[in-house]
Specification:
Pfam families: Oxidored_FMN. Its EC number is 1.-.-.-. This protein is α/β, with parallel strands linked by helices. Helix 4 runs parallel beside helix 7 and helix 8 runs parallel beside helix 9. The protein is built from 13 helices and 14 strands. The structure holds flavin mononucleotide.
Length: 377
């Protein structure tokens, strides 16, 4: 028997907010802003269509110009961008949903044709990776990343400052909280790993030094907007792919990070378990995590209804985020709750993941709409 207060469809408190169910919409870059990285009314429509999620986490939002790695991703550092985001937060709140913004610094995974400067990184080590370049003749296209420059102390202070200002901007834009992108080989993750961080100062070398930037960012934002509105996404087990090299120390380092975060009372910790490759998280590690961290945990990566229920029943996680299923099923929670079939990605869906307009973005129907359409024939 499922315990009454431990199922996917029951509310839970995540820091300062109460969400209606344990199903979150995972952060997903869709690259549909205007030039200037300004969020649009179409994005507000897309997020409001998905407001049945217990919590929506927006696509990664660059916190500054140097944080950008992909064209057309919505920033959160100019007045116009804050105004643009207000459309989405308002639309989601009108439908009784909750929405966090994912705060993003890509670090070395960028190119000067996107930011006008060399990418920032813990160390000057290039990653072989492609990013979504600027508009050129023939449209947008993927371009190879560039050799980054190692950040100095001033740059580190700037990054902490920019994250903090972006979090304040998020409050002004009406978000319920912020999720710091500490996963997938982006800046904060780059600092954690020996493969990308070979610094010899206070931010490199020992595990304590490599986790310093992460902790300073979390604490600075928490001081500014309240820890109960702050979350962080980590991906200790996502190794190959997305510029994220395997580092055998990551599980141990992650447990140390969690020990430091436990007393802060964050809204949740979000573990991205796989994106392009499968690497099963050992059950022992899940137990270790629970031993050091008792506050809300979210997990994400190839979950389906029954695996999501199981992980919540086992109490390894409190919330499960779904990614691609939310692209194709705006009413995903309703469908899961009522055991209705899910719309699958079309064979050409990948071409509408990034860039473009309504197609593959806001034109996926709810189950109800599909039925109505069928009845017309
Ligand atoms: C189109 C697309 C864009 C994504 N963009 C982001 C992003 O901006 N930030 C992030 O942390 N993860 C991003 N992800 C990863 C998802 O959050 C999620 O971890 C992944 O899709 C696995 O979950 P799923 O199997 O339920 O789709 C993206 C995934 C997809 C498919």
């Amino acid at each position: 028997m499922e315990s009454q207060n431990n199922t996917l469809f029951q509310p839970i408190s995540l820091g300062s907010i109460k969400v209606n169910n344990r199903i979150a919409m995972a952060p997903m870059t869709r690259s549909r802003t205007t030039e200037g990285d300004i969020p649009t009314p179409l994005m507000a429509e897309y997020y409001s269509q998905r407001a049945g999620a217990g919590l929506i986490i927006t696509e990664g939002a660059p916190i500054s110009n140097s944080a950008r790695g992909y064209s057309m991703t919505p920033g959160i550092y100019t007045e116009e961008q804050i105004e643009g985001w207000k459309l989405s937060t308002k639309a989601v709140h009108q439908k009784n949903g909750k929405i966090f913004v994912q705060l993003w610094h890509v670090g070395r995974r960028s190119h000067s044709s996107i930011t006008g400067e060399k990418p920032w990184a813990p160390s000057a080590i290039k990653v072989s990776d492609k990013v979504f370049g600027p508009l050129q003749e023939g449209g947008y296209g993927m371009i190879e990343t560039e050799m980054p420059r190692a950040m100095n102390q001033n740059d580190i202070d700037t990054v902490i400052h920019d994250f903090t200002v972006a979090a304040k901007n998020a409050m002004e834009a009406g978000f319920d909280g912020v999720e710091i992108h500490g996963a997938h080989g982006y800046l904060i993750d780059q600092f954690l790993r020996t493969t990308s961080n070979q610094r010899t100062d206070a931010y490199g070398g020992s595990q304590e030094n490599r986790m310093r930037l992460l902790l300073e960012v979390v604490k600075s934002i928490s001081k500014s907007i309240g820890a109960d509105k702050v979350a962080i996404r980590l991906s200790p087990f996502v190794s190959e792919g997305m510029g994220n090299e395997h580092d055998p120390e990551m599980p141990e380092l992650t447990l140390k990070v969690l020990q430091q975060l436990q007393p802060l009372g964050l809204a949740y910790i979000h573990f991205s378990e796989n994106i392009s490759d499968y690497k099963k998280v050992p059950e022992e590690f899940r137990k270790d995590i629970r031993n050091v961290y008792s506050n809300p945990i979210m997990v994400c990566g190839k979950y389906v209804k029954n695996t999501a229920e199981t992980i919540i029943e086992k109490r390894y996680a409190d919330v499960v985020a779904f990614g691609q299923d939310f692209i194709t099923n705006p009413d995903l929670v309703y469908r899961l709750e009522n055991n209705l079939p899910l719309t699958q990605l079309r064979s050409d869906s990948h071409s509408t993941f990034y860039g473009g307009g309504a197609e593959g973005f806001t034109d996926y129907p709810t189950y109800q709409k599909m039925l109505e359409k069928e009845l017309q024939y």
